[in-house]
Amino acid sequence: MATVTVAEAEPTSPDGSGWTDEQLRKYPFPTKQIPRLSHTDPRAEILINNEEPVVLTDTNLVFPALKWDINYLQENIGNGDFSVYIAENHKFLYYDEKKMSNFENFVPKSRRIEMKFSEFVEKMHQMEELNGKQRVYLQQTLNDTVGQKIVVDFLGFNWNWINKQQTKRNWGQLTSNLLLIGMEGNVTPAHYDEQQNFFAQIKGYKRCILFPPDQFECLYPYPVHHPCDRQSQVDFENPDYEKFPKFKNAFGYEAVVGPGDVLYIPMYWWHHIESLLNGGVTITVNFWYKGAPTPKRIEYPLKAHQKVAIMRNIEKMLGEALGDPHEVGPLLNTMIKGRYDQDLNANTDNGEALHNTARE
Ligand SMILES: O=C(O)CCC(=O)C(=O)O
């Protein structure tokens, strides 16, 4: 099989980290660094137990895959079909195809095409050469169509370490391993998932900006029945502060992950992920796990992610009860406007009058 050369950048940074600040896109909110720790550091254990993000630098989770590049995958990944998204710009906003019938006027900004791996490589080449705005992003769950060498690499992952992580936190089953192969500069806009995630970087560098679940109000997710459920409506590059004023309060946690790093993305944490500019192709495999079952004894106050789960359930129940997802918003508005969106304890005219009467 002919070999191909898809831009594969070598580390160029003066500090040896493999990347520089110029490769990061600019956004209007502040961020703090996510800690980078050894998996043997007790602080890493504490962070994961508290469902807070951490980059683990030495798990060897995907060690056999660190040799993967486009040529190796082209030779060995097999003849299965791969889901490839094509977008007219660098942003790959996820949408749930099953929810598209709820919103007939919704026009997705990217489209999914099933293709062979070699076709994907070809497409990536064409797009690089044309230097246009169009881009591709391969996002495919690893399955049994992969070739023998990939199977051997997969079996050599550090299952011992990751199975222990799963068991000691009582997480549910591993649901899937998504293989992501992206072009430099590709962006997955901010969203949250309802699963625990160990995000293993294999090739190239990705910047991951995370926001905790208590920033729900700052990030304005689409309604649950919308195809973009769980995605933020805010365009980070051009935020509409009139529509989304609380985005001004957003505060992120970020890390750049490179080959061998594993980022723990806790369930319900928002994440925006970008392949660095001029950084070549990126390859990632994630490990998605179902969360632990809800505890029998609920402790109060509830955590932010539990409140998010409650809000999701209310939206879903209303959608079913009303028989039409489009009636959910109006009903919620009727229920809230002038009732729950006012501080009834405040010294309003009404409140003042009541107070005065009581004094007389
Ligand atoms: O790497 C990306 O572009 C997106 C990955 C992601 O959203 C995830 O693993 O949950």
TrEMBL record:
Tell me, in one coarse class, where this protein mainly resides: cytoplasm
Give the InterPro entries listed for this entry.
Answer: Cupin_8, FIH-1_dom_II, JmjC_dom, RmlC-like_jellyroll
* E.C. numbers: 1.14.11.30, 1.14.11.n4
Q: Where is this region: Disordered?
A: 1-22
Q: Which Pfam families match?
A: Cupin_8 (PF13621)
The alphabetical list of record keywords is: Acetylation, Cytoplasm, Dioxygenase, Iron, Metal-binding, Nucleus, Oxidoreductase, Transcription, Transcription regulation
Write out the catalysed reaction. L-histidyl-[ankyrin-repeat domain protein] + 2-oxoglutarate + O2 = (3S)-3-hydroxy-L-histidyl-[ankyrin-repeat domain protein] + succinate + CO2; L-asparaginyl-[hypoxia-inducible factor alpha subunit] + 2-oxoglutarate + O2 = (3S)-3-hydroxy-L-asparaginyl-[hypoxia-inducible factor alpha subunit] + succinate + CO2; L-asparaginyl-[ankyrin-repeat domain protein] + 2-oxoglutarate + O2 = (3S)-3-hydroxy-L-asparaginyl-[ankyrin-repeat domain protein] + succinate + CO2; L-aspartyl-[ankyrin-repeat domain protein] + 2-oxoglutarate + O2 = (3S)-3-hydroxy-L-aspartyl-[ankyrin-repeat domain protein] + succinate + CO2
Q: Which BP terms does GO give this entry? A: negative regulation of Notch signaling pathway; regulation of developmental process
Q: Where is the JmjC domain?
A: 134-304
What cofactor requirement does the entry state? Answer: Fe(2+)
Q: What cellular-component terms does GO give this entry?
A: nucleus; perinuclear region of cytoplasm
What is its subcellular localisation? Cytoplasm, Perinuclear region; Nucleus
Asked if Nucleus is a keyword of the record, the answer is yes
Q: Which GO terms describe its molecular function?
A: [protein]-asparagine 3-dioxygenase activity; ankyrin repeat binding; metal ion binding; peptidyl-histidine dioxygenase activity
Q: What class of enzyme is it?
A: oxidoreductase
Say if the entry is tagged with keyword Metal-binding.
Answer: yes
Superkingdom as given in the UniProt entry: Eukaryota
Q: What is this protein called?
A: Hypoxia-inducible factor 1-alpha inhibitor
